[in-house]
Amino acid sequence: MKRTERKQLKENGLASGLRRFVLWIRQHGKELKVAGLTLVIVAALIVGLTFYGKYKKSQEANYLSQVLALRAELGQKPENLTQLEKMADSSRYGRIASLSLAAYYFEKNEFSQAEKILERVKNKGKDLIHYQILDLYGQVLAKQNKFDEAIAVYRQIEKDKPKAYPLDIILYHLADVYEKKGDLEQALNVYRQLQAGYQNTYYGYQAALKVMKLQSSS
After folding, report:
1. What whole-number distance in Å separates Cα of residue 74 and Cα of residue 24?
2. What is the spatial distance between Cα 185 and Cα 215, in angstroms, rounded to a whole number?
3. Nearest CA to 95 among 54, 55, 137?
4. Distance spanning both ends of the chain, measured CA to CA
5. Which of 60, 89, 149, 179 gives a 20 to 30 Å CA spacing to 11?
6. pLDDT class for 27, splitting at 50, 70, 90?
7. CA–CA distance from 34 to each of 29, 37, 71 (Å)?
8. How far is CA 127 from the centre of its chain?
């Protein structure tokens, strides 16, 4: 087979994986939004599109295609879970599979299982996937009422000021954890910071609504 034909087949495989993943997102959009996992899905798609656009490492693109396809069909094919677990454990690109698995367990309210998966990969790399893992890790901790640990995770991301991940998302999740902890003063401080610094973003707008709500209830 010619080199160009092999490359086209790999590109087609990735595109197919992305299409199935997008279809899955459309089918489960409401549930994902309620669960707070929309950002996980968006980030996964960004990674996929980045690989697809640059397409410098065909092995990475092929791996991503497999993860997206397995995740998209997990509801219809429970056996895909075993395959994803193997990919997370054995592949050099296991962070993506680990993130996908943790998101799955998050949706199932199996937070301790999600935490175990994220624990293995949360200190690897400093790219988009790394901060997406930490973001989900913070959400998982908060769901288990480990508020101080979650706050420490988000404060560290804030300190890092990553270029690879939107800081307004992190600040909003940080404020949300403070609010759930019952520390409304700190929650208001972060919401105001977000409102002032990100006026034209979705999370800046949501923060403004939160400020009004918390001020009116105090």
Report:
1. 10
2. 10
3. 137
4. 70
5. 89
6. low
7. 9, 8, 19
8. 12
Class of residue 158 by CB neighbours under 10 A (exposed 0-12, middle 13-18, buried 19+): middle
pTM above 0.85, yes or no: no
| Mean pLDDT score, 94-118 | 92
* Phi, psi dihedral angles at 198 (to 5 degrees): -135, 55
Report which DSSP code applies to 56.
-
Burial code (b: 16+ CB inside 10 Å, e: under 16) for 25-36 equals beebeeebeebb
Residue 26 vs residues 19, 36, 106: alpha-carbon distances, Å: 11, 15, 18
Interatomic CA distance for residues 137 and 121, integer angstroms: 10
Domain ranges of the chain: 3-143, 166-218
Q: Report helix, strand or coil for 82.
A: helix
SS3 78: coil
Give the C-alpha distances (Å, rounded to integers) separating 37 from 23, 103, 126. Answer: 16, 7, 21
CA 141 to chain centre: 14
CA–CA distance from 45 to each of 22, 76, 150 (Å)? 8, 21, 25
Question: Could you tell me if 145 and 175 are in contact, meaning their C-beta atoms sit under 8 angstroms apart?
Answer: no
Give the separation between CA 203 and CA 213, rounded to whole angstroms. 15
